[in-house]
Amino acid sequence: FKGGDTCEYLLSSGRFLGEKVWQPHSCMMHKYKNSEAKNCLIDKHVVFIGDSRIRQLFYSFIKLINPQVKEEGIKHGNIPFEDKSASIKVDFLWYPEVNGSMRQRIKSWAEGSVAKPHIIVVGAATWSIKIHNGSNEALAQYKINITSIAPLLEKLAISSDVYWVLQDPVYEDMLSESRKMITNEKIDAYNEAAVRILNSSSRNSKAKVKVFSVSKLIAQETIMKSADGLHLPESSRDTNAMILMNVYCNKIMKPIDGSCCQPQPPLTLIQKIAFCFFTLSIFGYLIFSLIHRNNYRKNKSCTDLESGEEKKPAISTPNVSTLEMLLHCFCKLGLIMTYFYLCDRANLFMKENKFYTHSSFFIPIVYILVLGVFYTENTKETKVLNREQTDEWKGWMQLVILIYHISGASTFLPVYMHIRVLVAAYLFQTGYGHFSYFWIKGDFGVYRVCQVLFRLNFLVVVLCIVMDRPYQFYYFVPLVTVWFMIIYATLAVWPQIVQKKANGSCLWHFGLLLKLICLLTCIYFLSYSQGAFEKIFSFWPLSKCFELNGNVYEWWFRWKLDRYVVFHGMLFAFIYLALQKHQMISEGKGDPLFSNRVSNVLLFISIVSFLTYSIWASSCKNKTECNELHPSVSVVQILAFILIRNIPGYVRSVYSSFFAWFGKISLELFICQYHIWLAADTKGILVLIPGYPMFNVLVSTFIFVCVAHEISQITNDLAQIVVPKDNSTLLKRLLCIAGFFSGLHFFSAMQDQSRY
């Protein structure tokens, strides 16, 4: 990739994804809404000059501002448009030929005292071909006229955006007899003359008249659908208008999913400090390596944050100091973060829009399911939701979610609703895992809390600094973090009720149920009281964590979408552990969970419930209405899956090691995809190898998975250092962390002030 101008690519090259979605070469095109178009063009004057084809483009352009506009008015005359609410003026000036009249109009702007338009779109040729019957003399005169106009356009281009629209090809078989002389051969000759003359001036390199040639490519694919063989179908005109809007507005509005024509964002103060820190870490580690010249390797076992199992402390090599271990971790992390920045902040790699097809989603799903079944092994234990099974569950769900994101399947409502269940299942495991840990072990110490919070948030905090994004942007981590704290608070608050205490008296079980009922009441109240919810999270410092685009609405929406499922996970854990304690279930290898009759009935009900939910989700017509029902009904499919997976003893005794491997790094996979697998903050797709989509996905996926795995190892290493078991040492570390965040807040305030 030569690092060319993405504006130039947007105006000159691209391809269709499907029938109607235009993909510019190397960059992403934003679909502007009416409100966005108005905000961009406020107090602007736009002029379209040319023939009936330019008039079509004019109408498509003003419909982006006001979709109610109808194509009425004098066909062969000037047409004004004004949006008084935003002070926008858009005029069409009828000049079907490049002649003295057009030159005089352009000269009045370039050399006269008349106010210059901010955007000028010019193009004409077919009338010259038609009137002069395609004669060579007309072409020669066209060259003379455009040569006289070119210096004026270049002069205007110093202060205005000037676009010369090349002539689209025609569909010669459909042309009327009066237009038969307009051939593609003649159009090519006129276009060639225009490009050669407009690009010949030395002054043109400073103030370039932009040649709008992409319309030709679009027309080549769609002109067959033309009504008369000359004018483009409406969808193609709309695409051209959207390209014009992207060329002008992307640098003003800076949409996340509009990478075309956007300059690279400048480094913030915090990013510069992070760069210096990682650079010093790399040099520091290299110095240590040169001094010691001995590598170390540690045996680690990965922690499941939701399972509640402690990670065995890493076995330290005596020759490796804590400082060297820190430098080693930050050295690797620095190199990885450099890759993150280059992929999604620097204009080094290409980015493309997503485009959904059923095959792009379902074929990879089938492929990974086959792989998962191939890697089947026996579990170490046969309990319900044992460690291997929960890793497997998280693994295949994460892979499905990744395929969902890269294929753009959110546009297909049945798939969207099923993916919502998978996200809910993650949160269900959060409730189940953390409740089980606190209930069984009764460990409410600060060490446990700090370990979980560090492992959940470390990567996100680093990305917030390096990628200049707010904490709430990575919405899933704030979600699981808040729910962990809610679970902790529910069980830790007086009276602390744990399994050991409850075994002495059944009344403690009722006390715990009372706590859960209070939690459910609070959830219900907050879900229907947006004002109260926003007030709670609008207080500083919570507002710094949960605001996105200046408010906490996005956080409220995300929280509300799965508000009951963590409670369901806690309740399921309580019931399951109670049944287990009273030996009402059989968890032996190969044994059904209940008696044969009960197991068969429950299995039948589970399968019917699972399929019923899928049928309901597939018949959804409105995303808003289905999202309203989702929090209450998603647990049906989750519980059905758990029972189907665990009632038969032979199914409970095996697991897929392939899925389990991915499950151990599921959190890192979910977060890393934002910047090094997808692009433009998940809105597009990262392109490392242009022109080879399948090969590109293979390469970018391999790097993405390796990076996620490495970050998981780094997080585990740092957790042992940053969060020690000794309480006095831990307190000192917490004070250091508080100082770090205070400094971060101070520099963030400085950044905000400088931006303002």
From TrEMBL:
One Gene Ontology CC term in the entry: Golgi membrane
EC code: 2.3.1.45
TM spans (from-to): 269-291, 325-343, 355-375, 396-417, 452-468, 474-494, 506-526, 561-579, 600-617, 659-679, 685-709, 730-750
Localization (cell): Golgi apparatus membrane
Location of the Cas1p 10 TM acyl transferase domain: 253-734
Keyword terms: Acyltransferase, Glycoprotein, Golgi apparatus, Membrane, Transferase, Transmembrane, Transmembrane helix
Cited InterPro entries: Cas1_AcylTrans_dom, NXPE4_C
Pfam family, any one: Cas1_AcylT
GO molecular function: N-acetylneuraminate 9-O-acetyltransferase activity
GO biological process: carbohydrate metabolic process
Membrane topology: Multi-pass membrane protein
Catalytically driven reaction(s): a ganglioside GD3 (d18:1(4E)) + acetyl-CoA = a ganglioside Ac-O-7-GD3(d18:1(4E)) + CoA; CMP-N-acetyl-beta-neuraminate + acetyl-CoA = CMP-N-acetyl-9-O-acetyl-beta-neuraminate + CoA; CMP-N-acetyl-beta-neuraminate + acetyl-CoA = CMP-N-acetyl-7-O-acetyl-beta-neuraminate + CoA
Domain NXPE C-terminal residues, every copy: 22-72
Residues in the signal sequence: none
Class of enzymatic activity (EC top level): transferase
Protein family: Belongs to the PC-esterase family. CASD1 subfamily.
Full protein name: N-acetylneuraminate (7)9-O-acetyltransferase
Organism: Calcarius ornatus (Chestnut-collared longspur)
Lineage, broadest ranks: Eukaryota, Metazoa, Chordata, Craniata, Vertebrata
